[in-house]
Write a structure and sequence with these properties.
The protein is of the alpha/beta class. It has helices at residues 2-19, 27-48, 56-81, 91-94, 108-124, 150-161, 195-203, 214-220, 275-285, 310-321, 334-341, 359-366, 382-391, 395-413, and strands spanning 86-88, 96-97, 128-130, 135-138, 143-145, 167-171, 192-194, 224-228, 237-240, 260-265, 290-295, 299-304, 324-327.
Length: 420
């Protein structure tokens, strides 16, 4: 705890050094910082008395909430210094959440009622409302946070709650990109996406948007525009209910790290019903979300993000269903993989999930009708694929080759059996 208290004192000095030069009157800043830091010291005192049975998450949120609360007040003052009629609104006063601390879920009815009662009248009066993202409060007033991507999620919640014409997400890139620009330097922004496309990209590893960000906008059918705060003149990416047809064969490539593939086998699946329900009942009981599912007559393969409870889950399957559950990856048979890699240029997808034989699946993928690339690209090959794209000349070269090779791929798919 002494070290934590030293960090708090250092935080006060850092914030004063960054914010003070932007303000004419600095006394309110000193008061603001001392008030918040004293609250944080009080939380540390409470944390010392928390036993191993719980309570850490709640106190963690109590500490983490101060960053947004301080920065949003400071931003209000800075805007006023530049002639903007800005008014601060504490996010905790309007964004009501459940008590799932560190990853709280907003309560729509209560939140929307408070938003509609507060923000529209301020905007009608010509004021610019400034509020922090990422944070809220429980029904009884305790600070909570929304978890990763919570700031963008907050913006989407507010926009949907007040019926905004458009929700804007300001980031450090030119919109949703064709690939991760940190790995593919010539990645470009995608002009337009549908809600479905943007949600899939976000869920399967896209770095710009968090999956939850799209939910409020989808429910109210409000366009979402992703823009670059460092280059406001760039149009960015517009996300709408139904995007217009695109000339891009592949709109974007995303990858997800830390994925675990689980292969469950049991002869009980053969000609039986209810087997999948038993499998997913185990996931539901342990609150584990499943990303992708592939099935055959006697096996189910799926991917999950979190592995902290997999030992317990695996034991449940073995005990209840008599199957053998283990970790693995469904692969193409050797001859099929060899055939796929024999193309010129070779395709960077040697390991694929088991898929249906219908040609339409690959047609849709290569013609840009779907971007659910996770269903065909094995996790450990994602970085190899991106390196391959870079080696052949970048995203444009990859798209050109996809166009040139589509007829060849379609002919290959038509040769049964292409999955062995």
């Amino acid at each position: 705890m002494p070290e934590a208290r030293r960090l708090i004192d250092g935080l006060r000095d850092d914030l004063r050094r960054i914010i003070a030069p932007l303000l004419t009157e600095r006394t309110p800043l000193d008061t603001l910082l001392e008030t918040h830091l004293e609250e944080m010291r009080g939380v540390l005192t409470r944390l010392e008395s928390v036993d191993a049975t719980g309570g850490e998450s709640e106190l963690s949120d109590a500490v983490l909430s101060h960053g947004e609360r301080i920065s949003s007040v400071a931003m209000t003052w800075i805007l006023r210094e530049h002639g903007v009629d800005a008014v601060h609104l504490d996010a905790g006063d309007v964004l009501v959440t459940n008590e799932d601390f560190t990853k709280a879920t907003p309560l729509p009815d209560r939140t929307n009622t408070r938003l509609r009662a507060t923000i529209p009248s301020l905007c009608d009066a010509g004021q610019t409302v400034v509020m922090g993202g990422f944070i809220g409060r429980t029904r009884d007033g305790r600070p909570s946070t929304l978890g990763r991507g919570g700031s963008d999620y907050s913006a989407s919640i507010v926009g949907a709650g007040i019926g905004a014409e458009e929700i804007q997400i300001w980031t450090d890139v030119d919109g949703v990109m064709t690939a991760d620009p940190a790995l593919v330097p010539d990645a470009e922004s995608v002009p337009g996406l549908s809600f479905d496309e943007a949600s899939e990209l976000a869920y399967f590893g896209g770095r710009v948007l968090h999956p939850s960000t799209m939910l409020p906008a989808v429910e109210k059918n409000i366009p979402v525009r992703v823009l670059n705060s460092r280059k406001p003149e760039v149009d960015g990416t517009l996300i709408v209910g139904n995007s217009p047809p695109s000339s891009l064969t592949i709109k974007s490539i995303a990858y997800k790290e830390g994925i675990t593939v689980i292969d469950i086998r049991s002869t009980r699946m053969l000609m039986a019903h209810g087997f999948l329900a038993e499998i997913f009942a185990v996931f539901d009981r342990h609150r584990i979300a499943v990303d992708v599912v592939a099935t055959s007559e006697v096996s189910v393969s799926l991917t999950v993000d979190h592995v902290d409870k997999l030992d317990v889950v695996t034991y449940s399957w073995q005990k209840v269903m008599g199957g053998e559950a283990g970790f693995g990856m469904l692969l193409l048979g050797p001859r099929a993989a060899e055939r796929l890699e024999s193309f010129t240029p070779p395709w960077p997808i040697p390991k694929l999930f088991r898929m249906a034989k219908e040609q339409k699946i690959l047609e849709d993928i290569f013609r840009g009708k779907t971007i659910n690339t996770i269903s065909m690209l094995a996790v450990e090959d994602a970085l190899d694929a991106l390196r391959w794209i870079e080696n052949i000349g970048g995203g444009k070269a990859m798209i050109a080759r996809a166009e040139a090779n589509f007829s060849v791929v379609a002919a290959w798919v038509a040769k049964p059996p292409w999955v062995e």
